[in-house]
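Sample intake sheet
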Amino acid sequence: MAKKRILVCGAGGFIGSHFAKRLKKEGCWVRGVDLKYPEFSETEADDFVIGDLRDPYVCRSVVDTKFDEVYQLAADMGGAGYVFTGENDANIMHNSALINLNMLEACYRRNVKRIFYSSSACIYPKYNQEDPQNPNCAEESAYPAMPDSDYGWEKLFSEHLYLAFHRNYGMEVRIARYHNIFGPEGSWNDGREKAPAALCRKVAVAILNGEDYIEIWGDGKQTRSFLYIDECIEGTLRLMRSDWTGPVNIGSEEMVTIDQLAKMIMDIAGKKLKIKHVPGPQGVRGRKSDNRLIYNKLGWKPTQPLRVGLEKTYRWIEEQVKRK
């Protein structure tokens, strides 16, 4: 049986680099494309193209054959410190929209049928996420639309773009709304890191420097759920290889406050620190994945406790901090 030929867009990033590793373990032939190579380990892709997917020529050149599967993970993105300040809105919308427009066109012209798009929980309306203990992130709650950021608006636009290519051109599109994916080998100190990595870094740095506190943006009562990278990939592959388009949540239902997240990390580190709440971007007050639909359609949902993934992530970030 011939090897599956797979293209991973954004393969130099956190999720994309882990995807390449998983697909190679399955025996696939993998091409990666990104602006950069993975930062923390060698890529495991068979072929890796350094290229800017905002350029339609680059998209056409990497889709130079018919791939069995394309994973479109490339985007201009980051954590709260990047997405919610308002300073990066134009770049986020312009860059990510161009990538999606170009990649879909290139795949359509090469008769690539099956393409996955990584959307985001950020598409959900702000008005359904004001109670930190009772957020509503069921898939059908996305409309009437009112995302809390331009990052969310772009993701929502691109969902419609992929669905239009599905309806009009028969492309086998699959769409997942990711909820806060975390794990080793992700951004941890470049301004694009998300809460688990940022808090792991703050705790590790405080311990290393003999400090007795860390800072947290906001009052610490805002809630989120966080999904470990391996489970994200498992859910995505099950969706991609099903006969269902989505969109569907891929995330954890284990919701914690940001203060609870910090205390869990301190417990893993073996050091109790004070928490100092300071002003900073926060996003919505509450968010967690609603997994009823994915379980109904695919018979699967994530099961790993948050702490298990945090232990692996903290140890990795602790190593990075010590090296610095």
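Comment: The chain has a mean pLDDT of 95. The radius of gyration is 19 Å.
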